[in-house]
């Protein structure tokens, strides 16, 4: 496996692979890889392309009171993992390499970035779209893989690519879960044993809510209340949001008569977890 | 010469040229080409590359009370001109091709876009950087040429390319002028004979101001006053701005002790003209 922290060196490698006619696939990440990331990488490998994994904890997407400093990092462990997965190139730039001088240019996806995680994390998605567009320009992949645990991020990246005509196909990969249902996240390491147990209410209530919808429940507000009640009953988690939204454009939904996303963010102590489920609705129109 | 209004068709052509090992050069324009544009195209041709000229009057960079509707257009005349220049590919997309649905994604270069033309044309540079980044993603040029009559635009594009790691070299080409000094502009056709004559005060006063600086004048405010006085004395032009700024980052300048840009915008009737000069200062430090 090749590895570099240097943009010019990466560009040279990519150029050579493209000249050989290789398709380039990018899996962007913030590292501290778990089985969710490894699933993304597996999907990337299945394309038969030249697979690049980037590891960069992007300061631009963390708010001043968020967990940038304590976000877990372990580059050598990550490097070993991706090498075992057969990744071709690991790109792990420093903050100075990515931001050699103060940034004044930003890429912003309006509307989609104002709701859900965007409402309580101002500037977060602007940081994400800006760094992802930098990574896209640096790596110039043909295909990029994103996990759907960050469903809103996945939709925002898709919209950015479409609006700005980026020559890249964005593929989403479903959430990977522990056997007991907990969505994999690098932040799960911060949970105490008790919080870890309580956090199961998230995936459980999402599943139950999806089942209610499939059985004909149509009120989005009722579904949200059902989940909120379950979380408050079964855990000490502090709800950031629980929302039913259109699964394509995140617009508000009152009556559930199309594909919807149920998304939530809940804090367990200082650790903020997110989870979601997309529910197909049979329409009998 | 090839020509297309279609993004997929353009991409196919570019891909083939890249596979042949050709360098791609882009000259973006809003059409109604004059000798200024043709100079850009000549410079592009001198590279020996595959030269793409785009013609697109971008609604996104015009304010609601600006001259989008009446901006001059003549595609067939332009097509003939660029063919005579030996351009390889003319790209002239429709508004629907460039904006098939409402845009929610924007690229914004902060700071640099707030001053000079940005101060009185809110959203103008955001429209420029967004459409240029789209054109860059569509054409994927190795080199792009921009005229320095829009000096601020040139600096903003350079900064966008650098901040977002676009793999493109931006080259600026000096202002092309009529024999009597008037900077070439597609908007000059709107000037009456009298306005056309009066507008000469712009280039003349810029030249005289540059000469004052070369002879040792150091006060930026005095230089601005000198130009403003000349414009008010010799024309009916209504001054939008006359400013001396740092030629690299457009920051404010009080004492002229480094390379400066003197830039101005003046309205003659409904027609807004811009002009500028970059003045090198010998530093004896």
TrEMBL record, chains A, B:
Homodimer. It is found in: Cytoplasm. The reaction proceeds by a bi uni uni bi ping pong mechanism. GO terms for molecular function: ATP binding; pantoate-beta-alanine ligase activity. This is Pantothenate synthetase. The active site is at residue 37. It comes from Desulfosporosinus acididurans. It comes from the Bacteria. It holds the Pfam family Pantoate_ligase. PANTHER family: CYTIDYLATE KINASE/PANTOATE-BETA-ALANINE LIGASE, PANTOATE--BETA-ALANINE LIGASE. HAMAP family: PanC. (R)-pantoate binds at residues 61, 153. ATP binds at residues 30-37, 147-150, 176, 184-187. Keywords: ATP-binding, Cytoplasm, Ligase, Nucleotide-binding, Pantothenate biosynthesis. It is an enzyme of class 6 (ligase).
């Amino acid at each position: 496996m090749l590895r570099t922290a240097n943009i010019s060196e990466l560009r040279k490698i990519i150029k050579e692979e493209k000249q050989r006619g290789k398709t380039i696939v990018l899996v962007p990440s913030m590292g501290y890889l778990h089985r969710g990331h490894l699933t993304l990488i597996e999907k990337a490998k299945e394309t038969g392309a030249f697979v690049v994994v980037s590891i960069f904890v992007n300061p631009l997407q963390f708010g001043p009171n968020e967990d940038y400093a304590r976000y877990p990092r372990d580059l050598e462990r990550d490097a070993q993992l991706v090498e075992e997965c057969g990744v071709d190139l690991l790109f792990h730039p420093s903050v100075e390499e990515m931001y050699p001088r103060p940034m004044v240019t930003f890429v912003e996806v309006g509307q989609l970035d104002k709701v859900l995680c965007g409402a309580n994390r101002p500037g977060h998605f602007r940081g994400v779209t800006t760094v992802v567009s930098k990574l896209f320009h640096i790596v110039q992949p043909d295909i990029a893989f994103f996990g759907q645990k960050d469903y809103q991020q996945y939709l925002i990246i898709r919209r950015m690519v479409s609006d700005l005509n980026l020559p890249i196909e964005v593929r989403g990969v479903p959430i990977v879960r522990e056997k007991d249902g907990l969505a994999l996240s690098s932040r799960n390491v911060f949970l105490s044993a008790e919080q870890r147990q309580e956090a199961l209410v998230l995936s459980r209530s999402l599943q139950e809510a999806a089942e209610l919808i499939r059985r004909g429940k149509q009120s989005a507000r009722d579904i949200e209340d059902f989940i909120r009640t379950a979380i408050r009953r079964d855990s000490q988690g502090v709800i950031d949001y629980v929302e039913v939204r259109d699964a394509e454009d995140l617009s508000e939904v009152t009556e559930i008569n199309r594909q919807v996303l149920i998304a939530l963010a809940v804090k367990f102590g200082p650790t903020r977890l997110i989870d979601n489920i997309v529910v197909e609705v049979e329409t009998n129109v």
